[in-house]
Predict the 3D structure of the following.
Amino acid sequence: MAESFPKQVLRQLEAVSRDEAERRLDVFLTGRLGVPRAKAQRLVRKGLVSRAGLLLLRPSQLLRAGDQLAVAMEPAAISQPTPPSDLRPLYQDDWLAVVDKPAGMVVHPGPGHSQGTLAQLIQTWGGPWSESGGSERPGIVHRLDRGSSGLLVLARTEEAHRSLARQLRTRTMGREYWALTEGAFQEDRGRVEAALGRDPRRPRRMAVAAVGREAITEFTVLERFARHAALRLRLLTGRTHQIRVHCGYIGRPLVGDRLYGAAAAPGSPDRPALHAAMLHFRHPSDGREMTFVSRLPDDLEALRLAVGAPAGSRALWPWIA
């Protein structure tokens, strides 16, 4: 007979996906509940996590695709990540703001991410903010994946939003990224042109599609390591997961990107090794050129050293500092 579950509110979690199979229980709970890993481990050890009615008592338990988990918690104890209170715009005026988003922060609310988003933090900075993207997405012109870090421009006025969105659409807004990929490159630079669409077999993924939306990514090799390469990537279109899909498509997935083919290995990061390093656009009010650069965050610098970069070195940074 299955052990009875403690008399607390049960939170049923979505089934473990194929991409999450073989993931540790505590790591899975950290992502799904938005709690620190130590707290996820305490929940398990207290007998508050079950699979099909049976308690799971080891944080290191590996999960299987399709597993149905439930967590017994007080409603108030189930929390979403809180935006870092010290995050402030790098630049702002009456028209726009530029922010350096940390990895792990969701840009706007969506399924499973109702709290702790950049959109909610923006509202604490004082208005006005454009609502062209909807009332739940104040100021949001474009986005970065939750696991990606780096630069975003936000619109304060509807006029600024229209101008910035037009620059995105006409490819006059420059966006460049740093990434670390698995595998080596013989060429110094290249271009990937492959249309993208939703993967019909795995709805969480995008995929190269015969009938899809145009997607173009240019890359330059910045550094070569024994089994990895650091790239400078330029987006000529802005499709969901574009860099991640294109790198996986050419057999060079981003380190840490399990969704698009990266190998699971000890020491791999919990997020894709991708950073929005440069943002260039014309100011909506007077057309003056504006360029912003974000240095590589500490976790990705540490990753460079782990894959073979010389001790004490910094990433080769081709962008104007």
About this structure: The first helix runs from residue 25 to 33.
